[in-house]
Amino acid sequence: MRLHPRPAGGEPRPWAFPAPERGGLPNGLTVLRSHRPGQRVIAVELNLTAPLETEPQGQEGVATIMARALNEGTDKHSAEEFAAELERCGATLDAHADHAGLRVSLEVPASRLTKALGLLADALRAPAFAESEIERLVRNRLDEIPHELADPGRRAAMALYAALFPAESRMSRPRSGTAETVGRIDAKAVRAFYDAHIGPAAAPAVVVGDLPGIDLDAALKETLGTWTGSAAEPPVWSPADVNDTPRVIVVDRPGAVQTQLLIGRTGGDRHDPLYPARRLGIYCLGGTITSRLDRVLREEKGYTYGIRAFSQVLRSSADGTGLALLGIRGSVATDVTGPALADLWQVLRTLAAEGLTDEERDAAVQYLVGVAPLSFETAAAVAGTLANQVEEELPDDFQARLYARLAETGTVEASAAVVRALPADGLVTVLVGDAEKIAGPVRDLGIGEVTVVAG
Fold first, then answer.
1. pLDDT per residue over 261-278, tens digit each?
2. Which residues in 295-365 belong to E strands, given as ranges?
3. Which of 99, 188, 207, 295 is most buried by a 10 A CB count?
4. Which residues are CB-contacts of 397 (< 8 A; sequence separation ≥ 6)?
5. Dihedral, CA atoms, 261, 266, 267, 268, nearest 10 degrees?
6. CB 130 within 8 A of CB 100
């Protein structure tokens, strides 16, 4: 039998992140559109200027309840009717609240775009906020809270934010509120928050998909274009009062067989000129199973199934008041908590003393730049990234330029950036585990004063 020769790989084709085209509607709504051939499921993202910092004191969680209530009926449809109309369109509509603001996401087949945009416009223009639906959403949220407190990862995050930020800062408290604050929320409070913050003038919309053949201007004009009203001015972020003093908080979970690790501090957002170098360095440290942390703690020592370093934007502003959480997270067996932390800190100290290798830097660039086309295959992925750029006050070509900047970043620059981001002598450590077994060995490491709190 004659075998055909194996096909040879072709020459790589140039790729660039899709550039959006900007426009607007008469009601003040800004529109960014991006044509993606073949993407017949259209993705729409809207940023609403309703940051958690604007929630009334004692009603933390009202932004989350409002977001969840947006698809629970309008002045035209009950909650059940609205859900049925979305289903007939084959559409999904989601909304969530975060420190930066409210994000509303719609995905729908291109053939039903106008109908789905009309439902989205109704949800934004005239949400019902029926008392019975708000009461149900509040009950659901109250049911979620005990499960979040029981989850080691979520509990570690709560403890870290409470340690980094002062009690009066919204950053220090759970994003979706506590049982006490959520219990105070009613339909009147949700309506008041909506009236104060939601309007088209501060709600840029991103539309991505296979757009030729769709009269998008007409569709937007007769749907989102009918939404009237004004919104509050964008918030002016005050400088964050952060306490990065090295210390260890042990959240006691007697009998726990594992310890959840969350180690972090704060840094600049993506406006920081060093952001590309930091992203590259953090990837080398803990971005994949071949990174330094995994190589030592997982492959060599067998302490963990995986440990990761990360950078997460909390709020962003072009004026320099933006903020990101820089950290390391993972879990280890209880009996090796002390040795695992000792080895983790040794990785950080060795990195500071010797830097990254050229091989690590080259592999990171090859992956981060090479995987980009795969990361943005769907319309939703492109729309989400463009919406992030708008929310973070970044230029429309930020993502496109990022890959060129990553490729230009040298080993020394990436090394300096990651050491600056995660210095061995400047980290707050949260451990969720059995305090009786882990507190002593951790104290012996000298990585910070150890405090034990109830789990």
1. 999 999 999 999 999 999
2. 307-315, 323-333
3. 207
4. 19
5. 120
6. no
Structure-token pair, residue 100: 């930066």
Q: d(Cα 334, Cα 332) in Å, to the nearest integer?
A: 6
- 55-65 pLDDT, tens per residue? 999 999 999 99
Whole-number Å distance between alpha carbons of 335 and 340: 10
Report the b/e string of 397-421 with b at 16+ CB within 10 A. Answer: ebbeebbeebeebebebbbbbbbbb
Helical segments of 96-176, H only:
113-125, 131-150, 152-164
Structure tokens at 78: 């009950």
**Measured between alpha carbons, how far is 68 from 176 in angstroms, rounded to an integer?**
11
**3-state SS, one letter per residue, for 238-300:** CCCCCCCCCEEEEEECCCCCEEEEEEEEEECCCCCCCHHHHHHHHHHHHCCCCCHHHHHHHHH
Give residue 327's region: left, alpha or beta (phi > 0; psi -120 to 50): beta
CB 91 within 8 A of CB 108: yes
Burial class (CB in 10 A: 0-12, 13-18, 19+), 36: buried
Q: What is the pTM of this model?
A: 0.93
Of 310, 275, 311, the closest CA to residue 293 belongs to 310
CB-based contacts of 270, cutoff 8 Å, min separation 6 = 313, 316, 322, 324, 392, 394, 398
Q: Which residues contact 437 (CB under 8 A, 6 or more apart)?
A: 334, 335, 337
How many CB atoms sit inside 10 A of residue 78's CB?
Answer: 14
Asked if 45 and 382 touch (Cβ cutoff 8 Å), the reply is: no
C-alpha pair distances (Å), 361 with each of 312, 409, 415: 21, 9, 9
